[in-house]
Structure formats: C-alpha cells, structure tokens
Amino acid sequence: MITLIPGERIYLVKRRHKFALYSRLSPVLAIFLLLLLSIFYILLYFEFFWPKFLLNFLPQLSSFKLKFFILFFLSQVLAFFWALIWLVFINYYFDFWIITDQRVIHAELKTFFNMKISSVAFDKIQDITVSIKGFFPAIFHFGDITIQTAGEMGQFTFSQIPDPEIVKQVIFEAQTDYLKSKK
C-alpha cells in the first residue's frame, strides 16, 4: 500500500505502454485460442481409437473412449494458459509509477504476494534520461526513463513508459517547484 506524505499531491500515474501488455499477452492468447479451437474440433469431428497392442494388453480400456482422455488433457493445458493470461495482466496492472509534488514512487509486483515499493525525493535526483530504442517504441511513442539519484538506489528506471518526453518534463517541473519551495 502506498501512503502519501500529508499534503502531498499526485501529478501523474503511469503504467507501461499498452503495446508492452499486448506484446506479452498475444502469444499466450494465441496459444489459448488455438487450444480452445482444437478442443471444439476434436469434440465435433474426431473419433480416436486405442491402439490394438494396448487393447490386447489391457482389454478394459475398450470401455473408455480415448477422445475424452485427450480432451481432458487439453482442458488442463487450457486452464494453465488461462492462468498465465491473468498473470501477465496482473503483472502489467501492478507495475506503475507515481509522480507527486515531492517524490517519484515506483511500485512493482515481484511475485504474487511480493510487491516492492520504492521512492526517490526530488532533492536526490541528479539526472533524467529518456531512451527510445527500436521501431515499435518510435512508432507508438514509448520508451524508458532513467533517473540517476544521489541515494543508495543509484538508478530509477521507468520501463516502456508512454510519452517519455512528457513524463520527463513533468518530473523536471515538479522537481523545480519542489526545490523552489525548499529554499
């Protein structure tokens, strides 16, 4: 849980760009849909039979349909990919950055029940660097912001943030206002 300092105002809350979510989610979602379609296809159009050597060895298998064993296995794999889809979304949703009038806060979900929250005050910020590398970041206007600090953290990185130049400007203006108010 993030607790603000009394009188602290939030200027901006940012998450990773939607492209980052879609790029991580699309392969898992494609496999999920492929499995779902294959289950329906097998259910409607296929009939599987036990191999004869297996029926000679275990004649009791003839009373069980192989089709249902295959569908059961595929449904278990489908449940795994459904959980993986939610895990990717939850990881996206619980990684965010907050810019206030006194500091920058980074909340990151490490594991399901382990959230790391760190912050850096504006008087500790020494340098802010924007990095936009690659074709898709240039097209969709997202990139990384690295904040060099004087504290023990060293660097504070906003990864795959939308409109990094605007976010850098907001941080710079908030830092300027903060330092003016401290004088």
Tell me about this structure.
The chain is an alpha+beta fold and 183 residues long. It has two domains: 10-16 and 95-182, PH-domain like; 23-91, no CATH class. Helix content is 48%, strand content 28%. The protein has helices at 18-45, 52-57, 66-93, 135-140, 164-182, and strands at residues 10-15, 96-100, 103-111, 114-121, 125-131, 142-149, 155-162. Strand 2 and strand 3 form a beta hairpin. The two termini are 31 Å apart. The mean pLDDT is 88.
CATH topology of the largest domain: PH-domain like
The H/E string reads EHHHEEEEHEEH
Largest sheet properties: 4 strands, antiparallel
User: Based on DSSP secondary structure assignment, what is the total number of beta strands?
Assistant: 7
Q: Estimate percent helicity.
A: 40-55%
Q: Residue-averaged pLDDT, rounded?
A: 88
Based on secondary structure, the structural category is: alpha+beta
Tally of structural domains: 2
Radius of gyration in whole Å, from Cα?
26 Å
Beta fraction: 25-35%
CATH structural architecture of the largest domain = Roll
Question: How far apart lie the N and C ends?
Answer: 31 Å
- Per CATH, the class of the largest domain reads Mainly Beta
Number of helices: 5
Shape: elongated
